[in-house]
Amino acid sequence: TATVSGTVIPYKEVTLTAQIPGRVELIAGSEGDAFRQGDVLVAIDDDDLLAKRRAIQAQIANAQAALQNARVQYNRELISPRSESPSSMPGFGLPIIMDNMFSKKMGDMAGYGDPDLERHADLYSALTGVNQAQASYMQANSALQELDAKIRDAKSIAPFDGIILKKMVEVGDTVQPGMPLIRYGHINYLRIKSDVPYRLVSSLKKGMMIPALLDNGKAVKVRVAQIYPMADVSNHTVTVKFDLPKGVNASPGMYAELRLPQGAAEENQEVVVPRSALIRGRSLPAVLVMNPDGGSSVRMVRLGQYLGNGKIVVLSGVKAGQRIVDNPPSGVGSGWVPGKPIHGAD
Q1: Mind listing the pLDDT tens digit for each residue in 121-147?
Q2: Over the stretch 3-57, which tens digit does the pLDDT of each residue have?
Q3: Which residues of 209-235 are buried (b: 16+ CB within 10 A; e: fewer)?
Q4: Which CATH number applies to 190-267: 3.40.190.10, 1.10.3210.10, 2.40.30.170, 1.10.3720.10?
Q5: Model pTM greater than 0.70?
């Protein structure tokens, strides 16, 4: 086995940041205090936002009144056109009565004016007033919704049940958008996070149980929970997370050691042998491997890259640590007892 180090982490952890500028007005607790999902953890002063909200509500009331008036004017124009209403002219309507009795009739006989076109223009003007009032009302409502979103952002809400892990600000601090406020985590379940060398990752499978030793001396079995799909380009390691048993005596930040199997890694190690160890006179490359009982056996091998200095990589057929015969006689077979020095695979 190989021992790698790791760190105990919460099952879930988030860093809550400020979404609006302002002064911190409330921090609900200290490190270690527990909260339920939906509780307010941090609040930023929002008095100016609330004042703006009241102003926008007044704008909405004005826009709504203007919209209602525009609709009334449109309905009146639709039912009783102003151009034909005697009450719309001074002098008890006498000028328009005279106009209707003499001027319009004479204008119609002479081909002047178009009553239908005038009626259409009056209706279009009234409808335009309705559309403009409605647009103003919708614009004021949109401004209210935008401001309400900012007011919600003034409060940092617990996204799940958990505890405060670390406070980055205190009441009275002035913050800007993006500044971290607190670290919050779910610790009913804990994990170990480790950066595992890439050569050991192939021996791990999701759900596999691995022995671990915590910094408090407690030996536990952990389960492989997540294997990241990519290796870190600078350290050439792969991040792996292991689930700790529920109720184990551990806390976030604690050091831990993991004992990982190397079987798959050892099988994937490159084996290097002298080229002189290849048996001459055979159609396929082979080497003579010494058995524990003192005998020997011929092993077919698959060759890889020639390294120079008389060395060559063997991809399969022998394993690191096996003993092979250097300079075996041509055409030698299994069972031959060599009389020459025996070399081990590098």
Answers
A1: 888 888 898 999 999 999 999 999 999
A2: 889 999 999 999 999 999 999 999 999 998 999 999 999 999 999 999 999 999 9
A3: ebebebeeeeebebebbeeeeebeeee
A4: 2.40.30.170
A5: no
Residue 195, by phi and psi: left (phi above 0), alpha (psi -120 to 50) or beta?
beta
In our burial notation (b when 16+ CB lie closer than 10 A, e otherwise), range 121-151 reads ebeeebbebbeebbebbeebeebbeebeeee
pLDDT band at 265 (very low <50, low <70, confident <90, very high): very low
Q: Considering only 61-65, 121-125, 182-186, 210-214, which range has the smallest mean pLDDT?
A: 121-125
Q: Answer whether 140's CB lies under 8 Å from 56's CB.
A: yes
SS3 content of the chain, % helix, strand, coil (to 5): 30, 35, 35
Q: Which of 42-56, 214-228, 262-276, 295-309 has the lowest mean pLDDT?
A: 262-276
- Split at pLDDT 50, 70, 90, the class of 270 is low
Quick one: CATH architecture of 2-45+153-182?
Beta Barrel (2.40)
Residues 6+ apart with CB under 8 A from 120: none
Angle at the Cα of 190 from the Cα atoms of 185 and 196, rounded to 5 degrees: 110
Please give the Cα distance from 24 to 165 (Å, whole number).
18
Cα distances from 223 to residues 189, 202, 218, 226, 257, in angstroms, run: 13, 16, 16, 9, 14
Residue 159, phi then psi, degrees to nearest 5: -80, -15
In which region does residue 117 sit, left (phi positive, over 0), alpha (psi from -120 to 50) or beta (all else)?
Answer: alpha
- Chain center to CA of 228: 14
The contacts of residue 311 (CB under 8 Å, 6+ apart) are 272, 273, 274, 275, 346
CATH number assigned to the domain with residue range 271-344, chosen from the 4 options 3.40.50.1820, 2.40.420.20, 1.10.10.10, 2.40.50.140: 2.40.420.20
